[in-house]
Amino acid sequence: MLPHIHEISFTDFRKNASSALKLVTAEGGNLWITRHHKPICAVVRMRDAHLLAKLQGHNMKEMMGRLEVDAARMQAAKRLERKYELTEIAGKEWEYPIFGP
Q: How far apart, in Å, are the Cα atoms of 23 and each of 26, 31, 39, 57?
C-alpha cells in the first residue's frame, strides 16, 4: 500500500509547518505543497529520499505501476503464508516407524 498523500497550500504550510511535518515524520505520509491548486513540491521522509534518486529520469507512471504490482505480490504472499500456517503438516493418522526389535 502506498503512503497517504496530503495536499496543502504554500500559505497554509508556512502557517502550520510544524503540524504538517508531523504528518510526514510520525504517520509516514507524503506532503504535497501546492500553489494555485497545482503541486509545486513534495515533502517526504529522509529514508524515502533514496527512492527519489532512483526515480529521476524514469517514467513516473511506469514506476507507480511497478509499486502497485509489488504491493499486490506482497499481499498475495501474506495470504499464502496465512494459508500454510493453518495447514496441518502431520496428519492425525501420522505414525512413526517401528525402531528396533
A: 6, 8, 17, 28
pLDDT in tens, 36-57: 988 888 888 877 777 776 767 6
State the DSSP code for 61.
H
The x, y and z cell numbers of residue 49, run together, are 529520499
| pTM to 2 decimal places | 0.46
Gap between the Cα atoms of 29 and 94, Å rounded: 51
Using the structure block, give the residue that is written with the C-alpha cell 502431520. Answer: 90
The rounded distance, in Å, linking the Cα atoms of 28 and 26 is 6
- Max intra-chain CA distance, the chain: 88
* φ/ψ (deg, to 5) at 100: 80, -170
Of 40 and 27, the structure prediction assigns the larger pLDDT to 40
